[in-house]
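Give me structure tokens for this 470-residue protein.
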Amino acid sequence: MPLSITFHGAARMVTGSKHLLDLPDGKRLLLDCGMFQGEGPASDALNRRFGFDPKSIDALVLSHAHIDHSGLIPRLVAEGYRGPIYATPATRDLCEILLADSAFIQENDFRYDAKRAKKQGKAMEEVGPLYTTGDVDTAMELFRLVPYDKPVEVLPGVTLTYIDAGHILGSASVHLTVASREGVRRITFSGDVGRYVDRLLPDPKPFPQADVIICESTYGDRDHKEASASAQELLGHVQRVCVEQQGRLIIPAFSVGRTQEILYQLNHLFNEGRLPRVPVFVDSPLSINATGIYRKFSNLLQADIREELEKDPDLFGFPGVEFIREASRSKELNTRKGGSITIAASGMMDAGRIRHHLFHGLRDARNAVLVVGFCGPGTFGERLLQRPETIHMYGEEVPVKAAILTMESYSAHADRNELLRWISCQDPSLVKQVFLVHGADHAMEGLRGLYAEKGFRKIELPRQGQRFEV
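Here you go.
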């Protein structure tokens, strides 16, 4: 039986990362088990059909904790998977809070939809939530921890090595060696590649020579702005919106990674005496829990950040920051007067408390929304970035009077030149196949051209469900 890879997600799209390896001995290994997001009504249908039998999978190797890479693990378990789930220790801890939060949302949404259907006298399809908190508890028992740079046999003849990808805490590129009677195949899956900039996490590390590379391409056709100026740019937005206009600077941010980056930068500005005295609200219980995990795994941060910790034991908190858990306090923010900063999830603005802040805040020209991360096609964030005159929310057409600002320098994804740097550790003549995933068509086409110029051959852009022998 030949070694093959079938792409069941993040194929000609950005989310739903799932890549299935059928091994020569008949075993099956799944790389990531991510949720589809931002596909509108199609997302639910995509998330309910794996394209394979979960009970047939022998091992799951997880690159990192973001929901588009881990978010369907509890559903995999609910449908019968009982094999090991390999992850770095930080990824395991982040998954525990992210998956529990996801299950809570699934259950609440289902109850709300059922209640609304009953009120309207409509029949409710008994499809249920994608998974429950009980499924999350079962899934967490299957996790097996693997540190960076330590080869571990995950299936007979299959060795896994995690290499720090520098994307979020615990994120890794996956390097597999698959030994069989036909010889040894070396397969590297990038996961999500981080930035080569001086921030919280170290640069992505080089990976061993591979025969086959599966590479993300989120920003494969463009470059980010210079990151070194991000602190001054953020400070300028705070000064103009919060001080001069006495408005709210509303920052939609992913709970894991982006929120901590922004808090660290605000803390740095505060320590330098440059941050204006405006209140900062972190309105996300999930972000608060994730920040605690960043504190726990501070050994994974950059060396200079660890040195800072000796002088400032809390890099994510300073006078003027309020971490909000209670929903009642969250609602109060929408009626308070004066300048302030509100950081809330989700980053793509499709769910979470950020929705309520936007519903109230978009109507006021003194306010601004600062978008600091990628917003996938079809998401609310992408629609808002078109700067429409009105936007539909909660059954209303909400006027968009607030400024819509962007700072791509905060992105945790490598841009095209950084993706070139990441793959530069490879001898292109030894790489037999490259598969580009996790990107829109224009991003993948742009990166394919760049990689081809560097000598990489047979660069494929797989479609959903497409199988390749490697």
